[in-house]
């Protein structure tokens, strides 16, 4: 996979790489499409209005419903969902972590019960890939062992050791498939290690010898403080190769994204913009607003006067306030379009600032505006 660094500003980078369904320009935010589509937004809207080129889908959820046989018959997720951009699928490791006692991590894989019907299932590194081959995602994540924070050194060592072991199985299996057919699915590994310097270094060193297409930083935003996360990224990113994409999983606020771009992250995903939209929290260039507030009942300005999204061009705060209060389903769609557009535009403007040499000023000014509310 060709990966080009187009410009840098200290550690911040603007990069470009090509996947099976189009070019990806970084920094990039991937909207979360758990079920293969964004909540409240169909894939045609994602293509035409949001113009997003990479979204995240959930291996665990798609495996349980609709099931891999549907994807095999449909010809993959792109044909099934009618999204002409790229998909990244996670491995299912985070779902096992989030399910707590409903899942059990073993040396050979993860046992879990379906949240739908209670049926028993087992993910191994190769099974996680087989599911993702059926989905036909453009970027596939290897199965990893995620440790909640805080965690002691023993638990972190288990996590790193098991993650490396599974990564070796995954890339060996993936490379073996290339002998039978052309593989367009790119494979990313996931660094673990909590906020422990030596564990992060060990995890990165072990994974980087395996030459994956890209590397993710996992195991953050799972219980540590924001300061601990930033401090960890200050050294952890330096352990990863500069000639591969760097993906920080599950982070975060607009402020988080800017701070992490500053530290060298290329790719992000988070449920925050869509989940917050559904709960009346709207991101704007001047900070967050809560659209359910009575103060917006007769406010006929757009959600954000600086925004050029479909929602802001056509509707007012007053109307969105009314839709939310009336529990109209169209509220979720319109608010989600805006919040996702805001995140995507933040990445586009960050990229532009890095390419044109004014990243430092852009970041400072944007953070000041975002802190107004």
From TrEMBL:
Q: What is catalysed by this protein? A: 7-aminomethyl-7-carbaguanine + guanosine(34) in tRNA = 7-aminomethyl-7-carbaguanosine(34) in tRNA + guanine
Any single biological process term in GO: tRNA queuosine(34) biosynthetic process
The protein's required cofactor(s) are namely: Zn(2+)
What Pfam family is a match, any one?
TGT
- Which domain of life does this protein belong to? Bacteria
Chain residues that bind substrate: 90-94, 144, 192, 219
Write down any Gene Ontology CC term.
cytosol
Identify the metabolic or biological route this protein is part of: tRNA modification; tRNA-queuosine biosynthesis
- The catalytic residues are 90 (proton acceptor), 269 (nucleophile)
Cofactor: binding details: Binds 1 zinc ion per subunit.
* InterPro entries in the cross-refs: TGT, TGT-like_sf, tRNA_ribo_trans-like
Q: A single GO molecular function, which one?
A: metal ion binding
Q: What class of enzyme is it?
A: transferase
Instruction: Please list where the region (RNA binding) is annotated.
Output: 250-256
Write the record's keywords in alphabetical order, separated by commas: Glycosyltransferase, Metal-binding, Queuosine biosynthesis, Transferase, tRNA processing, Zinc
Q: What's the EC number here?
A: 2.4.2.29
SUPFAM superfamilies xref list: tRNA-guanine transglycosylase
Q: Which residues bind Zn(2+)?
A: 307, 309, 312, 338
Q: Which residues form the tRNA-guanine(15) transglycosylase-like domain?
A: 11-370
Q: Coiled coil where?
A: none
Q: Which family does it belong to?
A: Belongs to the queuine tRNA-ribosyltransferase family.
Q: What does this protein do?
A: Catalyzes the base-exchange of a guanine (G) residue with the queuine precursor 7-aminomethyl-7-deazaguanine (PreQ1) at position 34 (anticodon wobble position) in tRNAs with GU(N) anticodons (tRNA-Asp, -Asn, -His and -Tyr). Catalysis occurs through a double-displacement mechanism. The nucleophile active site attacks the C1' of nucleotide 34 to detach the guanine base from the RNA, forming a covalent enzyme-RNA intermediate. The proton acceptor active site deprotonates the incoming PreQ1, allowing a nucleophilic attack on the C1' of the ribose to form the product.
Spell out the subunit comment: Homodimer. Within each dimer, one monomer is responsible for RNA recognition and catalysis, while the other monomer binds to the replacement base PreQ1.
Please report the name of this protein according to its UniProt entry.
Answer: Queuine tRNA-ribosyltransferase
| Species of provenance | Helicobacter aurati
């Amino acid at each position: 996979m060709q990966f080009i660094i187009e410009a840098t500003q200290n550690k911040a980078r603007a990069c470009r790489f090509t996947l099976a369904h189009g070019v990806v320009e970084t920094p990039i935010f991937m909207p979360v499409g758990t079920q293969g589509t964004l909540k409240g937004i169909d894939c045609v809207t994602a293509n035409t209005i949001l113009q997003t080129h990479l979204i995240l889908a959930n291996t665990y959820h798609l495996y349980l419903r609709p099931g891999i046989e549907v994807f095999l018959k449909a010809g993959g997720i792109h044909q099934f969902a009618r999204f002409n951009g790229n998909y990244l699928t996670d491995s299912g490791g985070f779902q096992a972590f989030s399910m707590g006692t409903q899942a059990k991590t073993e040396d050979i894989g993860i046992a879990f019960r379906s949240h739908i019907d209670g049926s028993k299932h087992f993910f191994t590194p190769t099974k996680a890939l087989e599911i993702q081959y059926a989905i036909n995602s453009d970027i596939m994540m290897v199965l990893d062992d995620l440790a909640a924070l805080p965690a002691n050194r023993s638990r972190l060592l288990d996590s790193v050791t098991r993650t490396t072991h599974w990564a070796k199985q995954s890339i060996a299996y993936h490379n073996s498939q290339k002998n039978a057919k052309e593989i367009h699915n790119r494979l990313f590994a996931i660094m673990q290690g909590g906020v422990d310097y030596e564990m992060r270094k060990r995890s990165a060193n072990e994974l980087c010898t395996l030459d994956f297409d890209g590397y993710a930083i996992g195991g953050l935003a799972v219980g540590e403080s924001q300061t601990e996360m930033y401090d960890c990224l200050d050294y952890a990113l330096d352990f990863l190769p500069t000639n591969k994409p760097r993906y920080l999983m599950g982070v975060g606020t607009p402020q988080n994204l800017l701070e992490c771009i500053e530290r060298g992250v290329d790719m992000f995903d988070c449920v925050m913009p869509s989940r917050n939209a559904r709960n009346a929290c709207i991101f704007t260039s001047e900070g967050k607003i809560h659209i359910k507030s009575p103060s917006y009942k007769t406010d006929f300005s757009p959600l954000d006067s600086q925004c050029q999204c479909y929602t802001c061009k056509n509707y007012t705060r007053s109307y969105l306030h009314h839709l939310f209060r009336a529990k109209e389903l169209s509220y979720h769609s319109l608010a989600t379009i805006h919040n996702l557009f805001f995140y995507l535009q933040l990445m586009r403007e960050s990229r532009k600032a890095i390419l044109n040499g004014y990243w430092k000023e852009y970041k400072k000014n944007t953070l000041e505006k975002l802190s107004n509310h």
